[in-house]
Batch of 2 targets.
Target 1
Amino acid sequence: MTENTPVPVITVSNLIKQFGRFAALRGVTAEFSGGKLYAILGDNGAGKTTLLRTLAGLNQPSSGHILILGSSKFHDICQQVGYMAHPSLLYDEMSGMENLDYFARLYGITSSTRCAEVIRAVGLDPGLVRPVGQYSQGMRQRMSLARALLNNPKILLLDEPFSNVDTHSATEMVHLLARTRDQGKTLFIVTHQASLLEGVADEFVWMDSGRIVGRTRELKRPTDGCGGGALPRRDGAEPRHHTSSEAGERAGESTP
Amino acid sequence: MIPQTATTPTGITRVTLLKDLRLEWRSKDAINSMLFFSLLVVVVFSFSFDPSAEESRQIAGGLIWVAFLFAAVVALNQTWAREMRNQVLDAYRVSPAPANSLFMAKTLGNFIFVSVLEALMTPLFIVFYRLRALGPAWQLLLVAVLGTWALVVNGTFFAAMSLRTRSREIMLPLLLFPISIPALLAMVQSTTSILNGEGARFWIVLLVTYDLVFTTVCLLLFETVLNAE
């Protein structure tokens, strides 16, 4: 590795995840550099959420390896990872501040100032006493993002952060995520609203049938031969895997 | 820089327990269901039988503990159902907090809920069945503490195990009741012995042993159960 090559924060090699006889991930191999915002795109059932959950340590790989910040044991680096799922991961009966105060203590954060800080960062009021169950969907999503940001993680894994959020709030969230990336964090965002990340995401990672089938710098669905990853070949030969640097070069070629 | 301290497993158990008590105080899901269930058992049985004082002492141990066992299942199901709403359990799993802290918090929470139920229902049992202990009554308190722990430690564990099954309300009693038979036997026999003025030492020792063994086994296996897919 040369001096100019960015050090990968996440390396995934030949990752397979099976649920019974169904393979949700079919040999994902990729490297992701630090300080970038990756948008993970693909149709329903492409394996995006499974990939994110596996990176978050919530699913155990059936085979293959994951190296996050140089460690293969998620427990060693969980302090450095923030995870936001499609459901809110919040207790409906407690207020936002009460929720965050509880989760902060799981990370050894005893200062409620930090909780108030992240709540303000996502555009909500820390003094809101209403239970989360009475929040609008957009507010709940933002509070969920605040929970993921709580431990000031180096890596953020976000699953559908903009779903059911109005356009204005979603744009605000995108700005916040871009600022977070600018602070040197690495973000992985699974979304069906890719256009929101156009011009913000450093790379679009395209998934299909449990594989990464392309990595582009522009929001342009890869076709055979122009994307990367393991795009199935028309001649029936084995799909070809390549590394992120190759994908970057290819994407770079296509960038005007 | 965020001010961080190394939170101890005990500290995490404490904050998780306080969070559960707060949630229960606001929703009253577990306590209300348990109370109504036990009240029904007391009333229905009191109408079904009209025992003499002597007969009451013979059957009360079994009646009380079966009522508490069934009522406890309601609370045990609620415990983890709360964590499954909005998949909040995942937020705990991705955190550095140890699995056993969660288990202990849940077990202690259930112990408190079932103890509150017992404290409220026992006077009713005494009145309805005209109970009077011929043996040392303080030993009943010991049996109550040991017996309740036996129920909740296994119950919390098996409720976590049945968490991801489709029919978890049915699965929990199927798993819990057979394994609770030795504890239930000890609880019923010791209660009956104390009420009749006989020695209950053997049954109390059996309960202590049961509690120690199953608490250890549950703590050893809980992390695997929590992370099972």
Note: Residues 167-182 of chain A form the longest helix (16 residues).
Target 2
Amino acid sequence: MIRVRSVRVTYDGIKALDGLSLDVVDGEFVGLIGPNGCGKSTLIRVISGILLPDEGCVELEMSPLKGMSRRDIARTVAVVPQESHFFLDFRCLDIVLMGRNPYLRRFQSETEEDYRVALDAMRVTDILHLRDRGVNEISGGEKQRVVIARALAQSPRILLLDEPTAHLDIDHEIEVFDLLKRLNREGLTILVVSHDVNVAAEYCERILLMVDGKLAAEGMPEEVITQETLCKVYGANIVVGKNPKTGAPHVLLAPEHGRGGG
Amino acid sequence: MMARRWWAELLLLSILLVVVAFLSMGVGPSWISPLRILGVRLPRVVLGVFAGSSLALVGAALQGILQNPLADPYILGVSSGAAFGAALAVVLRLASSLLTPVFGFLGAILAIIAVYNLAKSNGRVPKDTLLLSGVLVGFFFSALVMLLMVMAKSELHEITYLLMGNLGFIFARSDIPLFAVFVLLVGVCGGVIYSRSREMNILSLGEEGAKQLGVETEKLKMMVFVTSSVVVGAVVAFCGAIGFVGLIVPHITRILVGPDHRRLIIASILLGGTLLLVADAAARTIAPVELPVGVITAIFGVPFFAYLLKRRKKQFD
């Protein structure tokens, strides 16, 4: 589980996180939404130990992040960024094996067990056929699945994703979120940042809405994604309806100068 | 299958090094008796393997931690520091040959300390700042060397030769222990660098990504930077600034064995020694006078550098 208490982070005089507190319980699938610049990515960086908060504390699985080594953190939390660049052209299998680093000693090479875990992760993410391909010669959607496989190879308790599908087509986006749902059912705790409110509403059990570095609302998708709340945050040009197939709340555009308006 | 191919490549590169080492002992401006080969050309071959391997090792490591394919052992300003130290020893006529390398090495250490402290801010050393301060400190020491050259009279030739890099260091019996100490030092530093090769692989994902996989990136960069600098200092102290071996060899090796530093570093060590021996054999035979090997490596290195630059552009456009 993740516990964040009164965390404050200031960058260049701007408060990125302003006394933020939240909890993510074991086994949850939580979506973090909010307008650009509200501090979503900063929160991911704080939880993964990249950024030290100026104030407040973060706990992972009941132990304070402050006392954990990078290896300890990497065994507990894995992060999938929005986009990955690969400076060197490793094979996809090599990239996934890098997820085993927190379990390996300095001179130790990967054991059979490490290969088994990595190949399992590749099977789950359906990229086994890419194992010997260079990571820079595959498509964006495939790359993102390689990165997710690497995260799974860390055998983490918690998976953090920072807009993992921002650069993907809709079909790949659905594939990725279906995969996350499956992993969540098998016990992985997931916190995913999404700028796409609809996708979050469709897949997450609980939604956190962040505004200006603070939590503005939280609850089930239908409690948070309401006309009233979203209009306050994003302005008046949206309508909240329902997905006719799943019943989840769905945000629709209602522009002033669209087809219906002036 | 991949593992078997790697062992084959390793064997091939090792055989190549041994064969080239033997052949290059037979090559020279004039025929000499086998007995004199031991005295004259064997030290040269030993020095060639020492310098070529060390520079290639450091090149591979620095390209890894700076995530810059154009980084080479001299970009961090350490060689200029070493050249300054050695030139100072020459000008001060301390030139019992023993003191030149010692001064060279001290110059290198001075440069490392300067570069590292210049680049550090808030306990972090961003890789671009490290490059920039390396270039800066390098310029400064180069200027000091030029100053020494202006002041020097009869020693000018010796300094010029030092700057160009050559394997003609003449070993007196008393130099051998010092050389042995330097080789040991380079061996230890090389071991430290090699022990970080898996982490260097991971660093290619970017610093944030590497941290999230459990790598202490600041510590990694510091360790590799300092040990690399010590290695470069030791090489320049004996052989002067031999350019381009450290830049080119890792690139050729990457094409041969792939990007994994655990293989790249070992293969670079073998190929670096081989290539420098070939270049030195050419330096001894191409022209009527013996050329400094640094001239040969630069003449062949620059076109290769240009080729890499072109290819890289194509890749990113």
Note: Chain B touches chain A at residues 67, 195-196, 198-199, 201-202, 204-206, 208-209, 211-216, 258-260, 262 (CB under 8 Å).
